[in-house]
Amino acid sequence: MNPDSCRRDVQRYQKEIAQLQQEKAREVVKAASETKKASTAADAARRSTSMSTAQSKNREAQRYEANAVRHQQKVAELERRIAHKQGDLNDAHRRLGDAEKQLEKRRTEEQQRATRENQRALTTIRSQLNQHTQLHYIALSTLEKLQQPPERIAVLFLAANPLDETKLRLDEEARSISEMIRKAEYRDAVRLESRWAVRPLDVLQAINECCPRIVHFSGHGSDQDEIILQDNSGNSKPVSKQAIVQTLAAASDEIQLVFFNSCYSRGQAEAVVAHIPAAIGMNTAIGDDAARVFAAQFYSAIGFGHSIARAFQQARAAMMMEGIPEENTPELFVAPGLDGDELMLVKAMPS
Predict the structure, then answer these.
(1) Residues 153-188 pLDDT 10s
(2) Tens digits of per-residue pLDDT, 138-153?
(3) CATH node for 152-342
(4) Distances from the Cα of 208 to the Cα of 191, 205, 217, 250, angstroms
(5) Following DSSP, what letter does each residue of 188-210 receive, concatenated?
(6) Helices 135-147 and 51-131: crossing angle, nearest 10°?
(7) How many helices (H) and strands (E) does the chain have?
(8) How is the chain split into domains, by residue range?
(9) Enclosing H/E stretch for 135
């Protein structure tokens, strides 16, 4: 939510309420005036000694009274509209408060992140200064290290192709990803780790071994929000959305992205961003070629230092270029308060 947009809503409702209140005040004055006229006419009728005059004045009183009733009805309608607009104004105030809190939270997180980075940098500098005597050279060396791209990130490719399911060309997908990473500008910053015939208990073991920034699930999914892994016999082993989300929530804090390259995985991706900055899932079934082309181009873009959002858009474009009409199947989810265009897994080196 944009705070500026919320403020404009608040101002608009305040203006509308003020206009309605002015209109109500005018109707109140009119109702009072008509009531006074009716009272005056009724008094004149009572005082009149002429029957015809008394009847005329009574008719005037009735007419004025009817006018007063119409104005009072308008007042009641305006009060109803004011109450409705007041409810809209209260909602707008609430949305504004939420938007300002979200903005402040984002700023606070950025400040905290900057503070942590500065503290780490200062700790590194102090450590270097304690070990060496030439302070000038050590400071320069530390600054040079801080300016370098981050250490290599690991992409953990988890594949399951159960014997009792339709065979998928997961090896082709892995080969395409590896090839596109190898061709990328910052290929040395990306390490692809793969695990095959994955069973449920293999997931945390592989994450603990590899400390990945990206966890990539490749294989089958079900329309019951399940990922299909393998059991001890090599057959299907469905894993529920709740189980996979809990597993990833308990995994390494280094994970920045979970890529569900499996059918019907939108629910898992949407749920996991409660614990992981970003996730990609499929909102329906996806074909082998589409999954392969999409994944390969995505990791190519990551290897060129693009953001997660830019890599996602490039991957969708690649499917369109190949004539694969499934570009709307993948969906990108980002945790609240984060921007996919700002989520960088590999930072480009300055030219």
Answers:
(1) 999 999 999 999 999 999 999 999 999 999 999 999
(2) 233 323 333 343 568 9
(3) 3.40.50.1460
(4) 15, 5, 16, 11
(5) GGEEEEEE-S--HHHHHHHHHHH
(6) 130
(7) 9, 8
(8) 3-108, 113-146, 152-342
(9) helix 135-147
